[in-house]
Amino acid sequence: MDTSPPEPRLSALYQELILDHYRRPRNKGALEGATHSVSLNNPLCGDEIDLQLRVDADVIRDVRFIGRGCSISQASASMMTQLLKDRTVPQALTLAARMSAMMQGDESAAKDKSLGDLRALAGVSKFPVRIKCALLPWNALTDAVKP
Amino acid sequence: MMLDAARLRADFPLLERQEHGRRLVYLDNAATTQKPEAVLSAIADYYRTTNANVHRGAYALAIRATEAYEAARAKLAAFVNAWAPEGVVFTRGTTESINLVAGSYGRAHVGRGDTVVVTAMDHHSNLVPWQILCQERGATLRMVEITEDGRIDLSDFGTALERRPKLVAFPYVSNALGTVNPVAQLAKLAHAVGAVVVVDGAQSTPHLRVDVQALDCDFYALSGHKMLGPMGSGALVAKPELLEAMPPYHGGGEMISRVFDDHSTYNKIPHKFEAGTPNVEAAVGLAAAIGYLEKIGLERIAEHEQALAQAAIEQLTQIDGVTVYGPRGHRAGVVSFTYGDIHPHDIATILDQDGVCIRAGHHCTQPLMRRLNVPATARASFYLYNELGDVAALAGSLVKAGALFGYVPA
């Protein structure tokens, strides 16, 4: 049996932090008093997310998600919810743009502290078919808050 | 006895390639198969020596093109023991074939209050066309349940037939479970209540000896690309008297007899259902694929895949946390599984780094996934060029995935 260590791109993809968010998702479950909600799925692979936000005076007061899917999509959702609380809607959209840039391989975005734990997902940019998994919750966010 | 897969692989240029620096282990044959040199050269030769529009030209080249196209039809007819060559309509594949039946036979015969029966293991291509038809006609779609071990529930099938459906559709082989359904038995039961029988043959035609007359279905749909042929090749095989009575599906050239200002009369079958310039290249390539398969023998291919599937089930179920779906014992070379809480997409990504290509997802069978209570599965599917070493590579790579995810069995 092949017992060679997993190749570096794989270890970079499946970092401990990602698996931790996958197995112990933060802010998972329904949100009481949600003002905005969007369900998105990836019809190709079946990843699902139902994102719920409570927005008050253009500020995201609370955010939770319900979802199922691969480690990348679910970790991305969990990490995203950590970042969004008490951000204004324009700030949240800026983060979405930074996340998208990181997925396109933008190295400055991958070092951008404003992305918090999400920087652990930088390795996804090397796996083009998985980028849509990482961006699924962000697309739900953009859909939810668009005027 | 197993085939000499290593020797057969030499016929497939793509399988000589490496993926991520490793020998390509292609285990996504239920999605599509690789093409042997014989098929690639048949397509190239057609364009180099024979290409012209068919059933139109009066010159020798066009006659040769027409002969090549019709010879492909005859070859496919013999391959599945069709009722007659004119009962073989070339299509883009199984999906188009089933849409043809739904759009033509279905619209002519299914009306308000009627019932169409499908099964919970049908591919979306043998489900959505019937949903659309039933919605349009005000008919009821009745889905037959499956058993715990992934077979059609015969008692529920019997209950569904009490509605005296106009049409019953099911797959010969399940693309997600590998179940081989008792088509002749199901067809007999359906005929007894006056239904016509539509069989999705996408996963059976490449892998076992098909005899549509012995099965006694009414319509049989198949795809060429899953049996070493080109993408966009396929056919609807039907009882000629049914095709004769059916209204056309697509209108255009080739399918007409006489065209007046306000109406037309139609060509004879199968041409009535082949509007426009057909994909002659696909038909010629498919005929070459059939030649290749016949040379090996479908019985031997089926036996080879059985051995691979059994080995895969044995090796995968030895990995703590792996669940294999579908029947044990007699089944096709499709093995769907899950591995603890590691999502199938993650499994597929990790295996890909070892050059192991599998499918992850719902396999276009969302109703089935709901019944298995999983959002998705990983699926390995075998063909004549796979060998036991490929099964070992799959199992080995899966163990690695477990390690990477720190999978600890419950």
Give a verbal description of the structure:
The complex is a heterodimer of chains A (147) and B (410). Chain A has 147 residues and is an alpha+beta fold. Chain A has one domain (26-145): Alpha-Beta Complex (Sufe protein. Chain: A), CATH 3.90.1010.10. Chain A contains 6 helices and 3 strands; from the N terminus they run H-H-E-E-E-H-H-H-H. Chain A has a 3-stranded antiparallel sheet, with helices on one face. In chain A, strand 1 and strand 2 form a beta hairpin. In chain A, helix 4 runs antiparallel to helix 6 (131-145). Chain A starts with 7 loop residues before the first helix and ends with a helix. The relative contact order of chain A is 0.19. The model of chain A has no long low-confidence stretch (mean pLDDT 92). By secondary structure, chain B is of the alpha/beta class. Chain B folds into 2 domains: 5-31 and 297-404, Aspartate Aminotransferase, domain 1; 39-294, Type I PLP-dependent aspartate aminotransferase-like (Major domain) (Aspartate Aminotransferase, domain 2, 3-Layer(aba) Sandwich), CATH 3.40.640.10. Helix content of chain B is 40%, strand content 16%. Chain B is built from 14 helices and 17 strands. In chain B, the strands form 5 sheets. In chain B, strands 4-10-9-8-7-5-6 form a 7-stranded mixed sheet, with helices on both faces. Chain B has a 4-stranded antiparallel sheet with strand order 13-14-17-16, with helices on one face. In chain B, helix 5 (128-137) links the parallel strand 5 and strand 6 (140-144). In chain B, helix 3 crosses helix 10, helix 4 packs parallel to helix 5 and helix 12 (344-352) packs across helix 14 (388-404). Chain B starts with a helix and ends in a 6-residue tail after the last helix. The model of chain B has no long low-confidence stretch (mean pLDDT 96).
